[in-house]
Design a protein that fits this description.
This protein has 42 residues and is mostly loops. 0% of the residues lie in helices and 0% in strands. The chain has no helices and no strands. It is elongated, with a radius of gyration of 21 Å. The N and C termini lie far apart (65 Å).
Length: 42
């Protein structure tokens, strides 16, 4: 029998970034912090 680590991953199995169907983030309506934006340097 083949090793468990050598088995082929199922293409229909959600893996890595394909499992982002449940990541429904609300929109970030907070204004960004001006210190982390490089527009006001100098």
């Amino acid at each position: 029998m083949a090793k468990k680590g050598m088995r082929r991953p199922d293409p229909s199995d959600p893996h890595g970034t394909e499992s982002n169907k449940k990541q429904k983030f609300p929109k970030n309506d907070v204004a960004p912090v001006p210190e982390i934006q490089n527009k006001n340097r100098g």
